[in-house]
Amino acid sequence: MALTLGDLSPSALRRHLARGLDLRAGAFRFLIRSHREEVARGLATLYPDFPLREGGFRDYHIRVDAVSGPRRWYRPQCNFWHDGQAPFKPLPVNHAFPLLEWGMNWCIAGHAQHYLMLHAAVLERHGKAVILPGDPGAGKSTLTAALTLSGWRLLSDEITLIDRDDGLIVPLARPVSLKNQSIDIVRAAFPQAVIGDIALDTHKGTVAHLKPPRESVARMDEKAPAAHIVFPRWRADTAARLTHHSKADAFIHAATHGFNYSLLGRLGFELNAALIDACDCWDFEYSRLEDAVATFEELVS
Amino acid sequence: MNPSCSAFLRALREPGVMAEFDMETWDRVVRQARAAGLLGRLGALASSFSKHLPEAVWRHLEAALTLAEQQRRAVHWELRHLGRALERTEGPVVLLKGAAYAAADLAPAAGRIFTDIDLLVPRARLGATESALMLDGWITSPHDAYDLRYYREWMHELPPMRHLRRQTWLDLHHNILPETARRKTQPALFMAASIALADFPRFSIPEPADQVLHSATHLFHEGEWQHGLRDLVDLDALLRAYGAAPAFWPHLLARAETLNLGRPLYYALRYARRLLHTPIPEAAMANCPERPGHLATALLDRLFLPAFASAHADCRTGLSGPAAFMLFVRSHWLRMPIHLLLPHLLRKAFKADAK
C-alpha cells in the first residue's frame, strides 16, 4: 500500500509541509510547502486519501505562507508562490487554505496545455461521465456535491480535463468548493458530509471545501468517456426537468468558457467537436436536490 | 554560474542529453527553463526524440510548445491586420526580433514565446505611422508629460501601444539605439538592407547579419536580464543557422564596423560561445571590431555571467543581485549622458516613493 496523507501523524504532516509535502492529485504532483496551521488542517481534513510520493519530478512547486514585513503583526496576510513567483495579491491569513486551492487550480489552468480544459464540473456513474458547465450562481457546485455524496465518482469540481491523445476525461478528484448558502444546504441534506474550515469574506464570499469520497480518490487514474453535458439551473419551486440543449450552442459555450480552447488552435476545435458529438446536451432545471440526483441516476442508467 | 544550473545549459547545447536526464534533474530543469522563458525552446529541441522522454516531463514541454505555436499564429494574424493598417504609409516597416523570427520562420522561432511586436520605421515617417496605427485602434497607455518627453525625445521607440480590441502590444521604433545613447549607429543603413517578406507584403526583416547585430545590441544595451539567457539562445540559433556559410563571418564583422556595433557583437559572440558552445570561428573572435581590453573583459564577465543565470533562484549566486544592479546602472549609463541621467533617476526614485 502506498503511503497516503492520512497515514501521517499531525506532527509528521507539519514536518512534511515545512520541507515540502509531495502530493499526487490525478495526473499532477504538487510539492506543497507551508507553515500555516490552516493549510495543515485543511489538507488533513480534505486530502487524507491522496497518495504521497518522495523525490523525482514534481509538476508544481508551490508554497502558501504568511507575508513577511510589517504586515506580520497588523492584519497579517498570506500569499501563494509558484516556484518563487507570486501570481496573486496577498489575502488575510485565515484564507490560506482556499488560497492553496485556488493556487492549485491556477497552476493547472495556466500550464496544463497538454489537455483541453473546460470550466466545468464532471462526475461519473456506470462508466459514463457527465459534464456540468455552469455559470456562477447556477448551483453547479451544490449539485456536484450532492451527486458526489450520492455514490457518483467525482472527477473534478472546477476544471474538466480532456486528454488530447484519446479524448477521455482525466480525473483530479480534488475537493469540491462550496460557496455561501450551498454550504448549509449540503450540510443539511447530507449530514455525513465532511466539510473543511469556513473562510469568511473571500472575494467569492464564504467558502468551504467538501472532502472527496475515498473511492473517487482511489480511482483517480481511471479516465472516463463523456456521455452527457448538462447545463444546470436552480429555480425555486420547479420540478426537476431535462430539456434538449442545442449542440451548436453547447459547442460555443464549451469553447468560450474553456481555459484554453483557442490556445490549442485546431486541436482545441477537434477535441471540442468530438466531445459535443459524443454527448447528449441538456438544460436542467431543479429546485430539490433529491429530485436532481434521481434525474441524473435515470440519465446514466 | 551555479552548478545546479549546468544540466539546463547542457540541454540547450546538446539537446540529445535530455534523453538521459533522471527525474531529479528534470525537476530542476523544467522549472529553470520555465523561469527563463525557454521551456518551449527545450520542447522544440526535444520534439524529434520525445518518445525517449518521461511522459510527465514531455507533457510540460509539449504544453509550452503549444503556447508558442499559438503565439506564432497570433503574430501572423496580427501582421495581416497591421499590413492593412499601414498599407498607405510610405517607406519600409521592418519587423524586429520575435515578430521577424515568427514571420519568416527563422531559426530562433521554434518554441519561442514573446510578448509584443516590434516595428522599426524611419524617424521621418514616425508621425504618419503612428497616426495610421491610431486610426486602426492602437492606443498609447496614459503617461505623464515627463514620460512622453522621455520616450519621444530621448528614446528609440514610442511608448508601448496596445490594440483596443485584440489587446496585442506593439512597440514602434525609429532607431535601434536611444537618441541619447553614447553609441551612434545608422538606422537608415539598417533599414535599407532589410529584406521584403513575400508572405507579408507590407513588411521586411533585417538581413541576416543585421538580425544578429540587432539582437546583440538589444541584449547588451537594455537592462532586461530576466530574458538575458533567452536572447542569448536566439543569438545562438541565428549564428548556428547563418554561420554554416563561411562567407557569413567576414560579412558580419564588416557590417558591425559599418553600423558601429562591434562592441555588442563581441559580447554576443563571447557569451554565446562561453555558455552555449556556439561554433564561432577563431578568426571572427580575433577580428571583431572594438574588442575590449583584457581588464574590461574580465570585469564584464563578472557581471554578465551571473546575470544570464538570474531568472531562477536555483541558478542565482551571491553575485546575481549586485551584478543585475550594476547592469541596470550600466544600461542607463549607455542610454543617456550624465546631465540627463541623474535628473532622470532622481525623478524615477521620487515617483516610485510617491506611489
Oligomer: heterodimer
- Series of H and E elements of chain A: HEEHEEEHEEHEEEEHEEHEEHHEH
Strand residues, percent of chain A:
25-35%
Q: Which residues of chain A sit in consecutive blocks of at least 5 with pLDDT less than 50?
A: none
Using CB atoms under 8 Å apart, which protein chain pair has the greatest interface? A-B, 20 and 23 residues
Averaged pLDDT of chain B, please? 87
Number of helices of chain A: 9
Instruction: Output the radius of gyration of chain A.
Output: 19 Å
* Number of E strands of chain B: 7
- Unreliable segments of chain B (pLDDT under 50, ≥5 consecutive)? none
Q: Please outline the major beta sheet of chain A.
A: 8 strands, mixed
Keywords:
heterodimer, A: 301 residues, B: 355 residues, alpha/beta, 16 helices, globular
Task: Describe this entry's structure for a reader.
The complex is a heterodimer of chains A (301) and B (355). Chain A has 301 residues and is of the alpha+beta class. Chain A folds into 2 domains: 5-111, no CATH class; 115-300, no CATH class. In chain A, 31% of the residues lie in helices and 30% in strands. In chain A, strands 6, 7, 8, 9, 10, 14, 15 and 16 form an 8-stranded mixed beta sheet that branches. Chain A is globular, with a radius of gyration of 19 Å. The relative contact order of chain A is 0.13. The mean pLDDT of chain A is 94. Chain B has helices spanning 6-13, 23-35, 39-46, 55-85, 97-104, 126-135, 145-154, 187-192, 208-221, 228-242, 248-259, 262-276, 282-286, 294-308, 320-335, 338-354, and strands spanning 93-96, 116-120, 138-140, 161-163, 169-173, 195-196, 203-205. The mean pLDDT of chain B is 87. In chain B, helix 9 (208-221) crosses helix 11, helix 9 (208-221) packs across helix 12 (262-276) and helix 10 crosses helix 12. Chain B has 16 helices and 7 strands. In chain B, a hairpin with a 6-residue loop joins strand 6 and strand 7 (203-205). By secondary structure, chain B is an alpha/beta fold. Chain B is globular, with a radius of gyration of 20 Å. Chain B has a 7-stranded mixed beta sheet with strand order 3-4-5-2-1-7-6, covered by helices on one side. Chain B has one domain (3-354). At the A-B interface, loops of A face helix 2 and helix 4 of B.
